[in-house]
Amino acid sequence: MSQESDSEQIPVSMLNALLYCERRFYLEYVEGVMAYNAPVVDGSLKHQKPLQSSPAMHKRKKEEKIKTRNIFLGSEILGIMAVADILEEANGEIIAVEQKRGKAPRDEQGNPFAWENDAVQVCAQGMLVEECLQKNLEKGIVYYMGSRERVEVPFTKELREKTLNAIKKAKELAETGKIPPPLNGSPRCPSCSLLPLCLPEETLYCKGQKNTPLSGTIALSDIDLGKVLYVQEQGAYIAVKGESLVVSHNKEEILHQPLVDLSEVVVFGNVQFSTQAMQALLQTNIPVSFLSVYGRFKGILQPEISKHGPLRIAQYKSALEPDFVMQMAREIVKSKIHNCRALLMRSLRAHPESEPENDQKNSEDRINEFKNDLPIMRLKDLEEKTFSAKTPDELRGMEGAAAHIYFQNFSRMIIVESKSGEFDFNARNRRPPKDPVNTLISFAYAMLARDLYSAILTVGLDPYIGFYHIPKHGRPALALDLMEEFRPVIADSVVLTLINKQMVTPDDFIRWENSCLLTENGRKAFFSAYEQRKLTEITHPVFGYKVNYRRAIETQVRFLAAVLRGDIPEYKGFIIR
Fold first, then answer.
1. What is the value of pTM for the model shown?
2. pLDDT of residue 32
3. Residues 197, 333, 547, CA angle at the centre, nearest 5°?
4. What are the chain's domains?
5. N or C: which end of the chain has fewer CB within 10 A?
6. Contacts 24+ apart (CB under 8 A), 234-239
């Protein structure tokens, strides 16, 4: 029954997911996606409590009833497996008990009953026990912890057939390699932990199957509200103590941060980790990015990447299709030029601080306001020309021309006059940057590329296979592709904020030979402004609801994944109004 087989056994919990929503089953089982919201975490903790007080396969007598917890069961015949919460034995009868965190539903007469997906799950467990012990089970129990009620589930012929059909359907969906469509207007979606990853309303909208305004529930998701911890104290040591991360230097504790409040850790230069801290971060799905002391990206420690091989195969195939590559390249370049022009217009207004992030002027009003500004009109012309471009090389030429115009006018957005001329900007230079403004721009681009790299790994794509940037050894082409549309609105905006609000001064830079570097205090000021910018809310250009830039980055990557697997028709770049 439990011997190795070429056919993979489906966990019975996935049958529960299948009957709740076929799309959820596919995301969790086939693509290996998992998200945590309050109900999921609470349910996990409630399942762990009895296991902590009672070891696996340990029997306890209570009023002539024997309870065995945490039993692994598997069947090659049925093609399923389970870790049963509880098996109860009394008077020669065996009952499988499945625990659920919520309250039991009630019929019109007020009597509790089990949800269909819960009933199928406990029935599947019962069928596994029957095969293992060669003994028929008449019923199972679903224990709803929220209302503390035991609901009896008779293993009727109808329920058994429904369970077998669910197993068959699960196998068929897993083999198709095609994600099911999202539910339309279902009350199940708002409480689903996968809502921010599934994007049901957005997918239907992109397919033209939903014309009503979107609710914007994904923008309010709490799965990514944790802090980003930056550690740049050279010689610092990171350990774990209880449920918290502890940062010390010279054996003196300088920071105590609960893991539950973290979403990511970024370390610079010579920072040490304990093995226990690394394991705790991996177990809590918190990635760690490693950069040089000057901000050059080195690599990332991240939990196992997505197991969805077909998604990456689709990415590789699409990268070889000229039409798809051209459509992606056009969206990337068009969006970048548009956002450069929008930031330039916004910054050149007489009172840039008085304008909200989402003003209500339409595009024609904005253009008329700057119709005599030659650089802005040239950027508008280049944006429009992207529609007639025939090749990626032609688009690269347009992008290069636009970047030249944009950086020629970058100094017009700097409103602070420096007596020493430290913040004068004449042209873009890098590797290494030679002045404070270019230093800030290069550092901002490096941090933005790291964010896109991490988001791409989280979604399950290959960061080194892009569609616009030519793949080269060591170049994360896809991260560079997707960061283009965010360069002006996040990275350049942070640079301008730091300078114009005098959050950095000439003392925050070190000049060495022909290069310019940020000091530790300068980097601290940058991190503060950068994280604040990512939390800035805007109106999503496609869906019209409020979303912060941090969420928008991940959403763009997930939309690309949806395009690659055929879930939505085409990719749309991220543009600001």
1. 0.77
2. 76
3. 35
4. 10-180 (3.90.320.10), 227-301 (3.100.10.20), 309-564 (1.20.120.920)
5. N
6. 234/269, 234/270, 234/271, 234/293, 235/270, 235/271, 235/272, 236/271, 236/272, 237/271, 237/272, 237/273, 237/274, 238/265, 238/267, 238/271, 238/272, 238/273, 238/274, 238/277, 239/273, 239/274, 239/276, 239/277
